[in-house]
Every structure is written in structure tokens, then in C-alpha cells.
Amino acid sequence: MLYPFPRSGLYVITPENQSLVRLMATVEAALRGGAQVIQLRAKHRRPDLAEAKALLDLCHAYRVPLIVNDDLKLAEHLGADGVHLGRDDPDPALARSCLGASAIIGVSCYADLERAIWAEETGASYVAFGAFFPSPTKPHAALAPIELLASAKLRLSCPIVAIGGITPENGAELLRAGADLLAAIDGVFAGSDPCQAASRYARLFA
């Protein structure tokens, strides 16, 4: 069973370089805190299928979708709820043909509204814009203007994810501007209590 993409909420992206035991514990804490989406991001070490399956089962126990970053083959073999595509990845139509009509297809659009319009027309389930604030994950990323969210809201019907340096303190501004979901890595996992950190974001959507 594939879980659908939510219309709003906290979108949690997994940190790099955690053991499976540690990752399972921290992701479960984020789920308890209110995460509505989990993205498996492993840029430096491709997880094996058993590791990814354990994470998928954990997410489904909380009725939350697991999306695989970049790796269409892993998403397909795993039976993940979807895949998130960047600039150098396959286009949404190809991903849709591989994963099926019910799969979640997300597309990074940086600060490019025209790319987002193309992505939605090509089959994307949601689009992501950013970085909106300086981020330790991508310290050299160009910043997107917050006004982009209002423009995107007028042109798009799919959910809009904001990403990049987002905290519970600055996230409300992005929601007011037009974001539907807020994505976070360090904001959830850098501290000692991912459950409490996630719940601070989740309260923004209450």
C-alpha cells in the first residue's frame, strides 16, 4: 500500500552518516513529534535494500509516506511511496512510468517557477523551492526569494514544499507566503531530542 502525499505538514529529510539503529531511533522520534513525510536522503552512501525496507516499514507503521531522494531504482525495488528528483535526475514522466500512477513524485525547483510549472504538467505530485535561508546541508546554495512562494501559489495546484535553513522561528513566514509543507534536516536532527524538535514545527500547522 502506498501512502499519499499530505497537503500540509512537516517534511523530514534524513541525516547522513547515522547507523541504521540510530537512524531508526531518530526517525521514529521525528514521527512521534508529528512528521508527515520522511525522505530518505543518502548522497554519500547508498543504503542497502534491507535498511531502506526497515525505514519504510517504520514510516508505514505511523501511516506516513517514505520518499527516496534521487535514486529511482532504489525507490522502485523498495516499493517506496515515491521519489524526489533533482536537476540531474530523470524527469517526472519517466519516474511515474516506473513507479506507477499512485506514487509520489517530487521535484526540486530551486528558485525556478517555470521549472515548477513544467514539473506539475509532467506529472509531479509536489514541488520544492529553496533554499530560503542559509543551510548547513547546502551552504553554497543560492537563496530563493520568499516572494516566489506567493507567485507559485497562484500558478500551481500541487503542494509546495519550502526547504533550506528552515526553523520553527522562521517557518511561519514561509507558510504565510504560500508554502504548504516545511522541510527540515538539522532543525529536527541536530539537537538531542528529535521528537521535541519535530513537534515545534508541527505546531505551526495546528
How is this structure best summarized?
By secondary structure, this protein is of the alpha/beta class.
Characterise this structure.
- This protein is an alpha/beta fold and 206 residues long.
- It has one domain (9-205): Aldolase class I (TIM Barrel).
- It contains 9 helices and 8 strands.
- The protein has helices at residues 20-33, 49-61, 72-78, 92-99, 113-121, 147-155, 171-177, 186-189, 194-202; strands at 9-13, 35-40, 66-69, 82-85, 104-110, 126-130, 160-163, 181-184.
- An 8-stranded parallel beta barrel has the order 1-2-3-4-5-6-7-8, surrounded by 8 helices.
- Helix 1 links the parallel strand 1 and strand 2.
Unreliably modeled segments: none
Mean pLDDT: 95
Helical content class: 25-40%
CATH architecture: Alpha-Beta Barrel
**What class would the helix/strand composition place it in?**
alpha/beta
By DSSP (H or I, 4+ residues per run), the number of helices equals 9
Largest sheet: 8 strands, parallel, barrel
Strand order within the widest beta sheet = 1-2-3-4-5-6-7-8
Instruction: Supply the CATH class.
Output: Alpha Beta
Our Rg estimate from Cα atoms comes to: 15 Å
Shape, per Cα inertia axes: globular
Number of strands: 8
CATH topology: TIM Barrel
The named CATH superfamily: Aldolase class I
Order of helices and strands: EHEHEHEHEHEHEHEHH
Which band does the percent of strand residues land in? 15-25%
CA distance, first residue to last residue:
27 Å
Oligomeric state of shown chains = single chain
Tally of distinct domains: 1
